[in-house]
Amino acid sequence: MTDLRFDALLRSRIAGNLALRAAASLPLGGLKRAAVCLILTDDGEGGAALVLTLRAKQLRAHSGQFALPGGRVDAGESAIDAALREAREEIGLQLPRDAVLGWLDDYPTRSGYLITPIVVWAPEDARMSANPAEVEEIYRVHLAELGRPGSPEFVAIPESDQPVIRYPLLGTLIHAPTAAVLYQFVEVAVHGRATRVAHLEQPVWAWS
User: Fold this and answer.
1) What is the CATH classification number for the domain harbouring 42?
2) What is this structure's pTM?
3) Is residue 114 part of a domain?
């Protein structure tokens, strides 16, 4: 993953890989529906990057954590509509529906949500600005950072039969659900592999 330019070739590759594989849709089973937006953009030097945010400290849930733009799916919304709305509300990025390249598997969280990840392509001149009510900082993480040796990490815990997934990124450890979604994006969208992630665990402190 060393030569990932933000160009038409990469867009075609990612859209093609997503189209080749049916994303797994899971039953709600009492969970609340949510969506996140995986935004592919320029890293500022012609490379391809994904957008991560640092959530505002005053938020009631998951404050001060790194996350993908996203949130609850409102009544009458699709997951695509919700993901695009959250990108607009959180980072001021207005994206049309034809920016959507596809989506990944639903991921059930320990905190009661079923997340649908939507993959979108931002224009080269995309401008983003953090909504201070929700986002403290916006980061562009080069795709190569997600494929470094030893990334992600899989850690056994006594509380679960499944491994906790985490990414060493931005000077910290980013856990599932964000880590699971990032991992599946790399596996499926970039490499074209049939990798599932719904079984991957979150750390115990995120189980509420």
Assistant:
1) 3.90.79.10
2) 0.94
3) yes
Q: Which of 187, 194, 206 has its CA nearest to residue 67?
A: 206
H or E stretch at 37: strand 32-42
Question: What tens-digit pLDDT sequence spans the chain (208 residues)?
Answer: 656 999 999 999 999 999 998 899 999 999 999 999 999 999 989 999 999 999 876 755 555 689 999 999 999 999 999 999 999 999 999 999 999 999 999 999 999 999 999 999 999 888 999 998 889 999 999 999 998 998 999 999 999 999 999 999 999 999 999 999 999 999 999 999 999 999 999 999 888 7
Q: Which amino acid is at 84?
A: L
Is the distance from CB of 116 to CB of 34 less than 8 angstroms? yes
Q: Flag whether 35 is in a domain.
A: yes
Report how many domains make up the chain: 1
Residue 162 lies in a domain: no
Helices and strands per DSSP (H, E), number in the chain: 3, 11
Residue 193, token pair as written in the block: 């592999």
Tokens of residue 166, six digits: 């985490």
Closest CA to 36 of 196, 205, 181, 194: 181
Residue 154 lies in a domain: no
Alpha carbon distance 146, 2 (integer Å): 11
